[in-house]
Amino acid sequence: MSTASTSTGTIPAVPALRNRQQLAWGIVLLCFSVFCVMAALALVGLHYFVFQSTIPMRAQLQVSRATASLISADLIEQAVRNERNLGSGDVVATPQSQAQITFRDPNQDSLVVARVIVKDGAAVVVRYFVRPRFDWSSESYSVYLDDLTGELDVEITEGLSRVVTVIIETRNGARVFLEAPGRYSIAVGDAHLQVVNYEGSARLVTADQRPFPIPAAQQGMSSLEDPSQFYYAPALVNVLGAATFSSDNVLDYNTASDQASPSIWRCSSLQDSGPVGRFELITEDGFPALQLFRGENAESHGETRCIQLFYGNEGVDVSSFRHISVRVTFKIRSHSLNLCGVDGSECPLMMRMEFNTAGNSEIQHWIHGFFTHEDPIVSDYPPLCDTCIERHEMINPDRWYTYESDNLLPTLELLGKRPVSLLNMRFYASGHQYDVLVRKVELLVDQTIAPIPTTEEQGG
């Protein structure tokens, strides 16, 4: 071996490259391997981009009653009374108010994917809301709500072309998965998480990852402190039949030939003088609704009303019921009278339930009204009618609002008016001019239900 001499000693010479061909092949194979890896990554990235990547949906906050609170990414709290577009991470709170978050698909003519009603006293973080980037993707619509306190109602639209998944997480890590069209209620208190599945597919996963499916018409309750404590119970049931309106359950009171059919709304208008009010099935925001309308600068009293009768001499026996409540979703576009008129009896929307009590032959009733404006100069208009047991409610104009009463039985019992039988349920627009849309009406009871008599049972 040759060596090189220096003043400090000898250093071995660098050996000559003996197999440059092997080195070249090694470089080629290394480059090819890098190329294959990069090509595979590119294909994976392309597949993800085309079939799995997502874009934001449109999330719109609309305040139904009073004023909601919105904290956006800049951490500045804003008071919102009308509407606002939401971004990822926004916090919505409803102190003494109610708001609705509507998720729409921007690529499908703003198709409504889901609605979330943020009830009075609730707060939630709208973490993300996405859809697939391209229509040919099979990925689902996804909505993720985080850090929930209070109560939400969730409605997932039927008939969509892809699956919708709504995930709701609590502060302690429990999660709720809503995975089918339907209506749900989720309530988070200090110690419990409650999930009600009125119709659809729901699943509750506790903080320690225990899954509990919640079937339709059932509710599940989980302890937030001890996830092992979980139980099921029946959900409340609507005794009015279908909650929504269609030509199958809305008839003209004056022309309907089959007046004795159960679960049918019979509608009509009356007025002291012209013009005549009207009712009409329409579509609003993609959903069916029943419009109650009277215009043409009317200056006389009028009503447009719908009633559903519970047949039989004594009505429907509710003496064994533990719960009766009223739920209605509606929008008041406009009304001409201040508040609910001079007697508090002409609200643009009024709910009325009639019933019998024990030992009293006189028909009793519960009434609750809604309006959108009150003239501060006119102070002598009463906030309730002379037979009402609670004040009418002011909501924001031209906004969908969902009212759900408390259980009416304790209040009525304290007044000595505990119902033993229900006779009818009605809703009506009253006043001079009004334009009201009613989307859903429900009379909710616990599942110890007396059957509603059929036409044959009444000899009809």
Describe this structure in words.
By secondary structure, the protein is mainly β. The protein folds into two domains: 55-235, Jelly Rolls (Sandwich); 250-458, Jelly Rolls, CATH 2.60.120. It has two helices and 34 strands. The chain has helices at 20-52, 408-414, and strands at residues 3-6, 9-12, 54-56, 58-65, 68-71, 77-80, 83-85, 90-93, 98-105, 111-118, 123-132, 141-156, 164-170, 175-178, 182-188, 192-199, 202-205, 211-214, 218-223, 230-234, 237-238, 250-252, 265-271, 278-284, 287-294, 302-309, 316-317, 324-335, 349-357, 360-371, 393-394, 401-404, 419-431, 434-445. The strands form four sheets. The protein has an 18-stranded mixed sheet that branches. Strands 22, 23, 26, 27, 29, 30, 31 and 33 form an eight-stranded mixed sheet that branches. Strands 21, 24, 25, 28, 32 and 34 form a six-stranded antiparallel sheet that branches. β1 (3-6) and β2 form a beta hairpin. The longest helix is centred in the first third of the chain and has 33 residues, at 20-52. It is elongated, with a radius of gyration of 31 Å.
